[in-house]
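Give me a protein, keeping tokens residue-aligned:
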Amino acid sequence: MALIVHKYGGTSMGSVERIANVAKRVAKWMRAGHQVVVVPSAMSGETNRLLGLAKEINPNPSPRELDQIASTGEQVSSGLLALALMKEGIDAVSYAGWQVAVNTDSSFTKARIKSIDSKKILNDLNAGRAVVVTGFQGVDPEGNITTLGRGGSDTSAVAMAAALKADECLIYTDVDGVYTTDPRVCEDARRLDKITFEEMLEMASLGSKVLQIRSVEFAGKYKVKTRVLSSLTDPLMPLDQEMKSGTLITFEEDSTMEAAVISGIAFARDEAKITVLGVPDRPGIAYQILGPIADANIDVDIIIQNQSVEGKTDFTFTVPRADYQKALDILKGTVQAHIEAKEISGDPKVSKVSVVGVGMRSHVGIASKMFRTLSEEGINILMISTSEIKISVVIDEKYMELAVRALHKAFELDQK
């Protein structure tokens, strides 16, 4: 008998029929003798509907009240799932995040989990019940309801698995696992049987939307065995078949992983590049440029500073495209005159493409192969960034899909 945490996304909970299917699947695991905790998301589209109502009433809503409103979506889906389980003959109970409790800080709309009191859940599990706990939410030290940000149910589920010392955390979604790249961009994309937490963390941070990045961080930190699999399969499929489906995210680099130098190609479409030209090359200049950007809550990704020529240098960095104009306005409005920069230019139409793989640690020539492949396709590289297990390039957005397909083929990711 194992203790398993199931997480179901909004699509999986999107209708009464799909909730009934989730109940059938959970009941199957329970009847096989396993203890199951289920973390459901709100029904598909419900959170957007609730937040839309809030902003219709008040265009500048209080973050605390937004959390109060948004958290109700998960409460509804949890209650409905508990009822569906009871209909299947399973003793079930549902809890909101504050009832368990999932303790968080007070950062409304993007709270972080601090601890989970697992006593109540363990008592229910030992009494033979299925326990349904709302994803995406918790409670702060003052008793306020908080939410964890978009995709937060993934983080809730992994944190729950860590607190309960679960044998595995199963993330059920509308895709059947983690792919070598997005199948919509490259039809030769292949589902991976296994990927390491490090690789998954890079893939998530570089634009892969399969899992929320904080959930991967949590899983790696607490060594929670996590599997991504499809909720759209037959809920009554044989259990041994289901237990081996999808993609296992593991903290062990086994011998077969050594053979695969690159595990995947990640990309982010909506990037923008900003260059501050003719900057005085003196200590603290990077902070003077990026400090005001950070103060405006704009994420900076790749940063390059050119070699100094006659005491002047150029400073280039990327930001999300949605923040491009805001970042330019800050730089031109206050920073440029203060640091005596010659000019500020930008390009809002760039994309980032990355190759990711733990095999890079023990193989040479990955960068040269990547650059040669892009060169042969006539794709100019604007910026380069590397880490131990990834190489990222910034290119013109019109070449992004071509770059992904060419690199996928060059690194033979279509081969098993």
